[in-house]
Amino acid sequence: MGLSVPFSSKASRLGNGFHVVWIGMRLEPRLFSVAVLGGIAYGVGMAASGWVLGRLTHEVLMPAFAAGHLDGAELARWAGVLCGIAVVTAGGVLARRAVAGKVMHRLQARYRRLLIRKYLDMPPSWHHRRPAGQLLAVATSDIEATWQVFAPLPMGVSVLAMIVTGGAALLAADLQLGAIGLALLPALVVLNWGYQRRAAPLAARVQALRGEVASVAQESFAGSHVVKSLGLEDFEAERFQRSVGTLRDASITVGRARVLFDTVIEGLAPLCVLAALAVGAVRVAGGDADVGDVVEVAYLIGMLALPVRSLGPVLGELIRAAAGWERLSAVLHDDDAMGYGDRRADGSGGVAISLRAVGYRYPDADGSAPPVLRDVNLEIPGGRTVAVVGSTGSGKSTFASLLVRLTDPTEGSVLFDGVDVRELSQRALADCALLVTQETFVLDDTVRNNVLFGADLSDGAVWEALEVVRLADFVSGLPSGLDTPVGEQGAILSGGQRQRLGLARAVIRSPRLLVLDDATSAVDPHVEGEILHRVCEAFQDTSLVLISNRMAAILVADEIVHLESGSVHDRGGHAEVLARSASYRRLVSAYARSAARDGQS
User: Fold this and answer.
1) Is 96:42 a contact under the CB 8 Å cutoff?
2) What DSSP state is assigned to residue 57?
3) Cα(246)–Cα(250) distance, rounded to whole angstroms?
4) What is the bridge-based pairing of β-strands 559-564 and 353-360?
5) CA-closest candidate to residue 150, choices 7, 21, 316, 18
């Protein structure tokens, strides 16, 4: 991110827009320079054409009217000069537009990569506090708004070149007439200042509302099954309509401000041209000016009308850039990302896990949230299979997240082979420990790519992993085997098959620590038991932690860890804990009865 520094809260939105431009210029200096040079060539060429028209009128046309015949050679010479200027101007337009577009798209791509990297680096707790739709809006509309300014920006450079060269040519042609033309500039400054003050807060509101609309849409899509099952289609449509209606009204308000600005600007230049022609006619009649000068001045004033009009879009994009960057920068400079060390997880076989006085509470505004885990001290030797059981809310899933460092404990530390997991590099941690949850993420891709998920392994390894999770027979019966697309969110798979696909994705990577958080909860109990036995056989040297109250997990475990109210209530073999703990007996028997009912149904 380097150059991407936050805004000063005291700066105006227009000033912040120029700050965004400065960042983009430093990131793409060469391409931006080419676009700027193209804009300058266009602006100077337009001003030069006005001077040539004035000279052509004064030296060729007016003498031709007086003499009754036209000097063809002189006309051809000036026409050649005009053609040369036209070629330069056209080249400037080409460089300005094509290269400016390339700069814009390169910056958008760069910041999308930065933003996605940021999203991936942030812990789950950070994502839980932010609607997915708003995060999506930052990655799409806010990034587009931030860097869209680079499309019209070289035209703004053309404006400055035309104003400087055209203004000089105006004053050189006729001081009084030039002053009339230059009267456009202070009027332009006042109008632009007023437009910026009116449009800046409106543009910021539109950007925020786009995020809200995206959030409502994402919630409706993600919860489509719930919406349909409860018959709430009309309710959701109305909720979305309210959000879209608010965005529509805000966008219309911005459009009205823009239309008013453009209308005044459009009328200003023709009035200046009429004033210059009126004064010029009087001066020509009095012998104080010649027709060529009046033609040149009228042309240059008309030419300045183009940049005057084009400044509106540039200013509008600067304001949008500031609004988009504020939202984008807030994410990029959020400091909640996890830090990693540089130590490697050397060794083989299962990881020896140590939890030392571990506690965790979810962050809240005043720090009054009750702890989810408290003073957990636990030693799990490498290669052991441990089942972590507990009632709802006992901290089991938080325990699983801490083991693979999806989040860090608020108290105490988690160690792998005696090394604090916070000292491990990100790559070392990912290669060492792996978590599979009951909510399986499935790509809209083939079976093979869902299992490999970026791993560079053979089809033989894929089939072995599918065999371990008892999915090989099903996949071999699909029309294209491993090449069969599973559809969005695994549409062709049942809930249990999706879970087994996610488990196969973990199995193929052979981690030293495998944590299954109810990863087989949607699987038939008898099949679940067989799958877990196969996993244990395939990973005899792996540390295996099963977060589950189901009997299939308990029976394959070497040891039971019973969590209650965020603390380790008991641990030991299943029979030992069953004999000692009444709460454990109630918990296990309740799940056993539930499994029996499921089997009978």
Assistant:
1) yes
2) I
3) 6
4) unpaired
5) 21
Q: Could you tell me the end-to-end alpha-carbon distance of the chain, in angstroms, rounded to an integer?
A: 57
Q: Which long-range contacts (CB under 8 A, 24 or more apart) does 117-120 make?
A: 118/331, 118/332, 118/334, 118/337
Say whether pLDDT at 562 is over 90.
Answer: yes
The pLDDT tens digits for 367-418 are 667 888 999 999 999 999 999 998 888 889 899 999 999 888 989 999 999 8
**Cα–Cα–Cα angle for 378, 384, 385, nearest 5°?**
95
Provide the Cα torsion 313, 315, 321, 327; round to 10°.
Answer: -120
Q: In what order do the strands lie in the sheet with 559-564?
A: 433-437, 513-517, 543-547, 385-389, 559-564, 567-572
Pull the structure tokens for residue 271: 């009035």
Token reading at 341: 């060390």
Contact call for residues 413 and 586 (beta carbons, < 8 A): no
pLDDT value for 75: 76
Beta-carbon contacts of 496 under 8 Å, excluding residues fewer than 6 positions away, are 520, 522, 523, 524, 527
Give 43's pLDDT tier (boundaries 50, 70, 90). confident
What digits encode the pLDDT tens for the residues 455-481?
888 999 999 999 999 999 999 998 899
Which residue would you say has higher pLDDT here, 69 or 532? Answer: 532
- Tally Cβ neighbours within 10 Å of residue 159: 23
pLDDT for res 4: 46
Q: How confident is the model at residue 8 (pLDDT cuts 50, 70, 90)?
A: very low
CA dihedral angle for residue 198, residue 200, residue 205, residue 211, rounded to 10 degrees: 150
Residues 425-432, mean pLDDT to the nearest whole number:
87
- Give the Cα separation of 444 and 280 in Å (integer): 71
pLDDT tens digits, one per residue of 155-199: 777 777 777 776 676 666 666 666 766 666 677 667 766 766 677
Whole-number Å distance between alpha carbons of 393 and 395: 5
Determine the pLDDT at residue 3: 43
- The pair of three-digit structure tokens given for residue 197, joined into one six-digit string: 């003050």
User: 567 forms bridges with which residues in the sheet?
Assistant: 564
Distance CA 498, CA 569 (A): 33
517 membership: H or E segment, kind and range: strand 513-517
Residue 335: both structure tokens together: 């400091």
